[in-house]
Amino acid sequence: MNDRHLAHPLDLESPRLSVEKPAVRFDVQGERSDDDRVAAAISAFTHDFGRDVVVGLESCIHCGHCAEACQFFVATGDAKYTPTWKLEPFAQAYRREAGPFSWLYRALGMRSKVTVDELEAWQELIYDACTLCGRCTLACPMSIDIAGLVGLARHGMAQAGLVPHELWAVTERAARDGSPLGATPAVLKERLEWLSDEHEVDIHVDRPRAEILVTFSSIEIMKYPLSLVATARVMNHAGCDWTVSSAGYEATNFGMLAGSAEWQKRMTMKIVDAALACGAKIVVVPECGHAYSALRWQGANMLGRPLPFRVLHISEFLAEYLASGRIRVRQQAGSIAFHDPCQVSRRGGATQAPRDVLAALGLELRETKDSGDLNFCCGGGGGVIVNHRADELRYRAFGIKMAQLDATGADSMVTSCSNCRQSFDDGQAHFGWDRRMGSLLELVADHLDAPASGATQGRTAGA
Ligand code: SF4
Ligand code: SF4
């Protein structure tokens, strides 16, 4: 990472960044003793003390580069948001329970036990003040995956019943109903039927065999339904053999965000099983950053073997099919800025795909000061956006994006994550910002040219 990050991108005195301070609180799940919570957390931490964790916790040279990379530290200047500090109880547990001198520390009482008070205080740092964006990881000269360690630390918090209650509520709902926002299979089918009629587009549902399984995010289903229409238009335009499965359609994975490995696996396996059932060779992940991480990079761990299909983020699908000529678009004039979803670009590796898509549309891409792999998060990733006590902090982080996007002077802006879009819509309303974040997928769908030869446009909704 170069020293572009050292400059403070925000005017913290700006009146539009002044926000009300919410009451400080921590949340607990269930009735349990303090000792029980601590024991559950330590047990989960210890379970995760594998080679990567040990190397990470042992090799920090305290250089501070990760702090300069973290949006929450950059936006506030508060040392408690230093990424390594977010790991402290996890590191403390490691040193006392599993480190090379743990027996000595315990014998001499040199390292005190992690306490429930520390865990409760820590909740804010790893849930409110971390979007798992991985910018600290990229900045670290020792290649310590701090974001990955925060993700593991959340496992202990979930086991201890110490998750912010809004995040836990949507995670429970996803585990119970199959969707964090109530997009049950019945709701999905009803909405797809309505969208199919309203927009005169064929949406393939529950086909017994298909080459491509398409998944959606609940945010798209409930808040941005035109993304569903856009997906169907693009798939039909390209002549794809595709389907949505009512048994495995929800790509978001709040189990992963909350720290529940059990629920993370349950959500992932629904998609894996749906893909296996229809023989899909490709699973397309929608405009959702963490959904891509969950399936593309953690899916095989959930399954216990390599995934038997390719996983493509929708931006990768668009780039590939535009390059092959199966998707054809009309050329556009004007300039555009792109917001990189952290989990697709920096953490996912698909940084170039959206740029290829925008180039195919003929648009002039105006990059933000920190873009691509160096992108700052929208502030709402990692489950932060559902956690309202984090609003003040999230808006401070969002201010970085707002300033950088304004500075591009681009005519319009798009992203490829519906969670980011939601974060931008919320930030726009909060600050009275006169910009609107659009969808890369919808932009393509709105400018499709004549279908490629061989594309099928027949009405085929339903099995
Ligand atoms: S993952 Fe992102 S938000 Fe979390 S500590 Fe690192 S830089 Fe900060
Ligand atoms: S950048 Fe890496 S080595 Fe430096 S303080 Fe952060 S974690 Fe430690």
Describe this structure in words.
The protein is an alpha/beta fold and 463 residues long. The chain folds into two domains: 3-162, Orthogonal Bundle (Fumarate Reductase Iron-sulfur Protein, Chain B, domain 2); 163-366 and 409-463, no CATH class. 49% of the residues lie in helices and 6% in strands. The chain contains 23 helices and eight strands. It has helices at residues 34-47, 51-58, 65-69, 71-76, 83-86, 88-97, 102-108, 116-128, 135-139, 146-159, 165-177, 185-199, 218-222, 226-237, 254-258, 261-278, 289-297, 299-303, 314-324, 352-360, 391-408, 418-431, 440-446; strands at residues 212-214, 242-244, 282-285, 310-313, 335-339, 364-365, 412-415, 437-439. It has a four-stranded parallel beta sheet with strand order 2-1-3-4. β5 (335-339), α20 and β6 form a beta-alpha-beta unit. α6 (88-97) packs across α7 and α8 (116-128) crosses α10 (146-159). It starts with 33 loop residues before the first helix and ends in a 17-residue tail after the last helix. Mean pLDDT is 90; it is low at 1-23 and 456-463. The site of one iron/sulfur cluster has 14 residues, from α3.
Helix/strand layout:
Elements: H1 34-47, H2 51-58, H3 65-69, H4 71-76, H5 83-86, H6 88-97, H7 102-108, H8 116-128, H9 135-139, H10 146-159, H11 165-177, H12 185-199, E1 212-214, H13 218-222, H14 226-237, E2 242-244, H15 254-258, H16 261-278, E3 282-285, H17 289-297, H18 299-303, E4 310-313, H19 314-324, E5 335-339, H20 352-360, E6 364-365, H21 391-408, E7 412-415, H22 418-431, E8 437-439, H23 440-446
Parallel strand pairs: 1-2, 1-3, 3-4, 5-6, 5-7, 7-8
Helix pairs in contact: 1-10, 6-7, 8-10, 14-23, 19-20
This protein binds iron/sulfur cluster (2 copies).
One iron/sulfur cluster binds at residues 69-72, 83, 86, 130-136, 146-147, 150.
